[in-house]
Write a structure and sequence with these properties.
The chain has about 300 residues and is an alpha/beta fold. Helix content is about 45%, strand content about 10%.
């Protein structure tokens, strides 16, 4: 039996064959080494993300998140819900905060859920995988399975917005959160503590609607990582990962830069350090290959 068990909410982007499926691959590999069991919430649905704030209305947005909560309470009682996607975590956390502190919203939401035969009791906690790693596993626990330290590799920890504001990670500064730096160092790598863009927004969905603005922000994020001496960027957010990796080629064309910086998830670093293969770490899903990590996998 696994030491720790959680109700898992993968979200749309991190599910199998989705845009961040390599994130899920590395999370599964990482959890296996840490003796953590993630059980997917049966019949989970999209959290709504940014679209839920546009035209759908408040109650539908809260209800679709609460539906996931009710399913977890029914099928996986007593287990915290864990999300890997920053947007899923943020939307779910907000929904729980609103419902747990506003009785009228709770009443209306449960009236909506009743049509599907569900009821949200308010028993579940909503957590990001990083919270689980830091609070439940601890840095000593993260370090214990390391067999291939990331020695000689330099990483800039890019946290972005959604895992930092308004909730953030307990005990961390909103202006200068250091948990990614500490995780990198725990794995034997070198954290670029002078990196000054760690909580800058990547533009999010503006990458589609206002690409000029978003790409300017991404340029600053990548440029600062190079200036700090980093070889790679590491992030806990699928949208941050996608934007900062995918648009480097567009930025190069527009600004005459020569960006070619791999952008990884913390879970990929952990899987490599734990002795995982390129496939187990999801490195075969990178657009910009992390050759230095692939080399460690091949040792």
């Amino acid at each position: 039996m696994a030491k720790k068990e959680y109700a898992f909410y993968p979200g749309c982007s991190s599910q199998l064959k989705a845009s961040a499926s390599n994130y899920l691959t590395s999370v599964n590999s990482m959890c296996e080494k840490l003796d953590v069991k993630l059980t997917e919430i049966p019949d989970w649905n999209c959290c709504g993300a940014s679209v839920g704030y546009a035209e759908g209305g408040e109650l539908p947005r809260l209800a679709i998140n609460a539906r996931n909560f009710a399913l977890a309470e029914t099928h996986l009682p007593g287990q915290d819900i864990v999300a890997t996607c920053a947007a899923c975590w943020l939307g779910s956390r907000e929904t729980k905060e609103r419902l747990d502190h506003t009785s009228q919203l709770m009443k209306e939401t449960n009236e909506a859920l009743a049509a599907a035969g569900l009821n949200y009791k308010g028993d579940v906690n909503i957590r990001h995988m990083v919270e689980v790693l830091i609070e439940d596993i601890g840095y000593d626990g993260i370090k214990k399975p390391v067999v291939k330290p990331l020695e000689g590799l330099k990483f800039a920890g890019y946290i972005g917005c959604q895992t930092n504001r308004p909730f953030g990670i307990a005990g961390e500064s909103f202006e200068n959160p250091k948990y990614l730096d500490q995780m990198v160092e725990t794995l034997g790598g070198e954290a670029m503590t002078s990196y000054d863009q760690k909580v800058t927004c990547c533009g999010g969905a503006l990458a589609f609607s206002e690409p000029e603005k978003s790409q300017k922000q991404i340029k600053d994020i990548i440029e600062s990582a190079y200036d700090s001496g980093a070889q790679m960027l590491v992030t806990p957010c699928p949208l941050c990962q996608a934007n900062t990796e995918v648009y480097q080629s567009e930025i190069n064309k527009k600004y005459g830069t020569k960006f070619n910086m791999p952008v990884l998830y913390y879970s990929q670093l952990m899987t490599v350090a734990y002795g995982g293969s390129i496939k187990e770490a999801g490195l075969d899903g990178q657009l910009i290959r992390a050759e230095a990590l692939e080399k460690i996998c091949g040792k």
